[in-house]
Description:
Blueprint: E1 23-27, E2 30-32, E3 42-43, H1 65-68, E4 74-76, E5 82-84, E6 98-100, H2 111-114, E7 122-124, E8 132-133, E9 146-148, E10 157-158, E11 171-173, E12 182-183, E13 205-207, H3 222-227, E14 230-232, E15 238-239, H4 252-256, E16 260-262, H5 284-330
Parallel strand pairs: 4-6, 6-7, 7-9, 8-10, 9-11, 10-12, 11-13, 13-14, 15-16
Antiparallel strand pairs: 1-2, 1-4, 3-5
Amino acid sequence: MAPPGYEPETCGTEHQNASHSAIQAQSNGNSIGFPNQVMEIEYDSEAKARRCERDKYVGQNVLPLDSFLPKLERLDLQDTGLVRLPSELFTPTPHLHWLSLSSNAFENVPEEALSKAPMLENLDLSGNDFTSLDRGNFRRLSKVSLLYLNNLSRLRRIEKDALAGLTALKSFSCSYNPNLIYVDEEAFGSVNSTISKERTMPHEQLFLRQNALRTLKSPLKMESWSSLSFVDLADNPWKCDCNLRWMRQLKMETQMNIVCDSPANLRGRPLSTVSASELKCESTWALTTFVLSVSTLVVFALVVLTSSAIVCSRTRVGLYVRAKKQFSYAKVKPKLETVDLDWDPSADF
């Protein structure tokens, strides 16, 4: 409750704090107020930037900022129009373990700022504008055990080593991303990764539900899949061919929720009802034969066209020569000569 007569200061027009978010510190089960006058965070054009200086109270006491920040454990910045974070934002909060940056306008993972939260365990980046997750985006978040990357409408790719460094990861949720078409088989870390010597893998749960995945090379070792308590790969437009044979080793309840979208003869069938022999890919020999056949046809067509061109050319040349000769014959003029004949009158008798 605020002291009698207390009136909060009005906001300026340059920066905005996050007072309308659920910002609170929890210490021994109690919530204490956050006088957030230093929360200068950039907003997009729809949430115009401004700076507020607003105090919250516990009883009649105002807590000094420098004594509050080291106790901050939970910070909710959901749906505040954020586009970027100051690199040192979390430096004064060494015990921050829960953070939500969901439903904002980040185009890139705020790596630098997040690296200053070494105790972070729960991170929600859902609903932002990422188009891809790139190598090393989470390299310094070795304590994070719960990572949420849902409802990312622009996300298309998760690249090699993008999730490397998340060595304490228990649950990975990356669902409802309508344009996610590619997850690299080494997204959780490559064998010779320079980011982390230990390969990342979720230890309990993996959610890749309702994305746009048609195929997937196993990003985990098979023994890691079997150790997971829950796997959700449902509602993706799976192309059931030889590239998905490894999924036949997943638990039956997982396979039942993987439904084929193509090829046509398997459409609508759960993977659990498809035999390994039905998961076919065009063989290399068949493809090679097809390419050779097409190449032969192309070569034959070129030969025919070339021969035709030569014949036509020669025919035209022959007709031209004959026509030229005939024309020259037509131009020949008869040679006129005068011959003197002697007449013998005796021959008439």
